[in-house]
Known about the structure:
Elements: H1 26-52, H2 62-75, H3 85-99, H4 103-117, H5 126-169, E1 174-177, E2 180-183, E3 188-190, H6 198-216, H7 224-247, H8 249-255, H9 258-285
Antiparallel strand pairs: 1-2, 2-3
Helix pairs in contact: 1-3, 1-4, 2-5, 2-6, 3-4, 4-5, 5-6, 5-7, 6-7, 6-9, 7-8, 7-9
Amino acid sequence: MPARLSVALTPSAAPLSSPLPRPVPLSLGIAVAAAGAMANAVAAALSQATETTGTPDVGVSKIVLLCAALGLIRVLGDLRAPLTLPALFALLPALAGGLGRGPDIAWTGLAVTAALLLLLPQVRGALRDGVWILLLVALHGPAVGLAGALLGGPLLTADAALAALVLSLIGAGGAATGNAITAVDGHTLLLVWKCGVLSNLSLALLIWHSGTRFLLGRLPRSALPYAVLVVAIMVLVNALRLAAMAMDPALFDLLHGGSGEQALRLGTMALVAAITALGVRRHVAR
């Protein structure tokens, strides 16, 4: 009788003990795509300004870039959500903007990406706040340009009327006709788009929105009165500046370009940042 053959099946090798590769965080993908789009926008604007005027200009305010940095920091504060296929699809416009020609393409790509990301369920918490900041940063320039095209005339007329009212209240006298302010001595100040309140007001609201979302992680209703306060202060400061320039040609030279205007803008934006911080502190203390 033949002997029974017994074969013991044993594993030829020990099971793999190395962990599976970790998925790429969605926040990292957002940061790379957004940073690429913004870098391309700044580089393209810098190149265009150098070629046309000979003066380097990044095309956007440094305040906009600072708010963008806050958005990126907020995005990178949450590394839990993985980069999924729908999220990768949402990143494509910003990635294309980073490779495109011209700043408008880059900012538009970033805005489209941010809007698509806000539709994804995994974009929540710190990630969502950072994406909201990036969306408003990307829309800032186009929104201000569109408002200027549609409402530029009425807004400048309102600016001139407020400045003339300030002159009357302080006893200096003056009158507004359209977008022109005439002082009692005949000195006339003609307002153009950059003289209006909207440009600085939009930057101030961008600071308020970015700072509040960055510090609180959301935009509570209790912060809205501080936005109203920011608007009121910006309108008042601009009216006082225009009244001063219309009243005295020497003040015009000081406050229209150069160090005087820069110092006033820096001080005003610092005040806006302080108001934003106060609103955040009051909300936390509630």
